[in-house]
């Protein structure tokens, strides 16, 4: 996701990257973290065990549960 965004003229000083390790409820943790830090956009890369064409379990849950947040899914 970082490479795609930088390739498309998003300068590094406009982006903030966070990595959260060791969480079981990944989607809930992402949404709570975004709300706590007043993030307006969450950008997700696609990875995981699912062979789904568009969404995996985490991105699907984020799409269903996110409120007042822009979600970007980067293939």
Detailed description of the structure:
With 75 residues, this protein is of the alpha+beta class. It is 35% helix and 13% strand. The chain has three helices and two strands, in the order H-H-E-H-E. The protein has helices at 2-7, 26-36, 57-65, and strands at 41-45, 70-74. The protein has a two-stranded parallel ribbon with strand order 1-2. Strand 1 (41-45), helix 3 and strand 2 (70-74) form a beta-alpha-beta unit. Helix 2 crosses helix 3. The model has no long low-confidence stretch (mean pLDDT 79).
Mean pLDDT: 79
The count of DSSP E runs of length 2 or more, i.e. the number of strands, is: 2
Poorly predicted regions are none
Straight-line N-to-C gap:
8 Å
Note the total helix count: 3
Spatial strand arrangement across the major sheet: 1-2
Q: Please provide the ordered H/E string of secondary-structure elements.
A: HHEHE
Structural class: alpha+beta
Helix proportion of residues, in percent? 25-40%
Shape: globular
Radius of gyration: 13 Å
Subunit arrangement of the protein: single chain
- Sheet with the most strands? 2 strands, parallel
